[in-house]
Design brief:
Blueprint (H helix, E strand, L loop, with lengths): L2 H7 L9 H11 L2 H13 L5 H14 L8 H7 L4 H11 L3 H8 L5 H8 L7 H9 L5 H8 L5
Length: about 150
Amino acid sequence: MDTVAFMERYGFDLARLRGDAWVRSWETRFPALWVIPAMVEALYQGRYKAVSVEQLLTMWRERSCPRLSFGLDFTRKVWPEVTEQVQEVLVQAGPSSLQLRRWQFQAYDTQQWYREHRGGKAITIYRLRQQLRAQALPHKLEEFVDCTPVR
């Protein structure tokens, strides 16, 4: 299946343009290797619009690196022919956000580390946030304590 067939199969909103026009435009302005993973990422995020693919590509260009939130299993299900290409992008991008999430949730005892290395004086960020929420805070600290993801 080619890129245009992929967009048609999953019902991408093309905003009155033809699919091949979108793809040609993306391939001239962004690394061509990123186009297919961006399409799969848009599908994974439930953003069935060509404009969403363009937004992802623009964001990746600003970061100088694609950031994929899906795994190769998802790619194999929705577009098996491009699995190797997506894997190549993952390798070029370094640790994917999936790997980062796995590292983030690995169990390790920060309290134990601090007891051993810092003489027992430790506080986790979660405990600190709880303590800060109980007090009146300056505006800048309120933003930190809220920790609402910025989109």
